[in-house]
Amino acid sequence: MRPPEVLRRASAYLARHDVESPLPTAEALLTSVLGVDRAGLYTRGQDLTPGEARAFGRALCLRCAGTPVQHMTGEQAFRRLTLVVRPGVFVPRPETEMLVEIALAELGEAPIVVDVGTGSGAIALAVKDERPGATVFATDLSREAVELARWNASRLGLEVDVREGDLLFPLATELRGRVDLVVSNPPYVGADAYGALPPEVRADPVAALVGGPALYERLMTEASSWLRPGGVLAVEVGADDGETIAEIFRPSFDGVRIEPDLAGRDRVVVGRRR
Ligand code: SAM
Ligand code: GLN
């Protein structure tokens, strides 16, 4: 069978198993199995070999059982970048691209930026890519995340200083009071909501998902002491958490606003250090 027919059947199979975006999913998995790009799928005149067909069948089964596509392809697009991802580190989500957009709009040409809880490095690397004059730091509590973020930085040739540890504590003390932007997509799923998440979300580490207001409060307190007066704190929030997090920011930050995502849900809270 040729790839276009294989894709048609695979996509119908994924749809029957209620997998989201069946055709793009089938394309991503077949692209990865055959080692071609998407256009190559449609121009390849040969049938799949038995080995390729078996590997593709296995990938479809894993996806139906809840394995994220990105754990099989090993990559995720994020703004202009293709990041390497792997199990054990949070896979960047498309909604976080908006956090980067909002953060960039607040920045001058040569800002000092810190991405707290960087995971694969997504936010920090996108900022460095799109604002090359920035000096960018990133932190994460997870050793695996730090290693992956460093690997992504080196493969992409983007200079980001990635440090292991809690919030902003790994930074050199000379930076206190000098940072222009603290940006973060912290864990914000409530412990009670965790069990109800779909399996592909629970494939991310628990420490990357489960958190909430107490962590934002600590982040806000720390960020206030590292930001310069007028420096910006921009965070991603859960769909119903905008007002709760904005309230936490208001005592120390000016111009606190909640930005909705494309679906109209709360997504980002931004404020300026007084
Ligand atoms: N920024 C990445 C992104 O948007 O794709 C990853 C976001 S993930 C939702 C949250 C990340 O924060 C995880 O990598 C987790 O290890 C890290 N983290 C959780 N608590 C932290 C803390 N107290 N200090 C630093 N990093 C933390
Ligand atoms: N976006 C994740 C979800 O799908 C949550 C990410 C986070 O906790 N920052 O629920």
CATH topology of the largest domain: Rossmann fold
End-to-end gap: 64 Å
The total tally of domains equals 2
Question: What percent of residues adopt helix (DSSP H or I)?
Answer: 40-55%
Topology as H/E string?
A: HHHHHEEHEHEHEEHHHEHEE
Unreliable runs? none
Shape: elongated
Question: What structural category arises from helix and sheet content?
Answer: alpha/beta
CATH class bucket of the largest domain: Alpha Beta
Bound molecules: S-adenosylmethionine, glutamine
Q: Count of helices? A: 12
Assigned CATH superfamily of the largest domain: Vaccinia Virus protein VP39
Q: Could you describe the largest sheet, including whether it forms a barrel?
A: 7 strands, mixed
The chain-level mean pLDDT equals 97
* Radius of gyration based on Cα positions: 20 Å
Question: Strand fraction band?
Answer: 15-25%
Number of strands: 9
State the strand order across the main sheet: 5-4-3-6-7-9-8
Q: What is the correct CATH architecture of the largest domain?
A: 3-Layer(aba) Sandwich
Molecular structure report:
There is one protein chain. The chain has helices at residues 3-16, 22-34, 38-43, 50-64, 69-73, 96-105, 122-130, 143-156, 199-202, 206-209, 213-226, 242-249; strands at 75-78, 81-84, 112-116, 135-140, 160-164, 179-184, 227-236, 253-260, 266-273. It is α/β, with parallel strands linked by helices. The chain folds into two domains: 3-65, Helicase, Ruva Protein, domain 3; 75-273, Vaccinia Virus protein VP39 (Rossmann fold). A seven-stranded mixed sheet has the order 5-4-3-6-7-9-8, with helices on both faces. α6 (96-105) crosses α7 (122-130). The mean pLDDT is 97. The protein binds S-adenosylmethionine and glutamine.
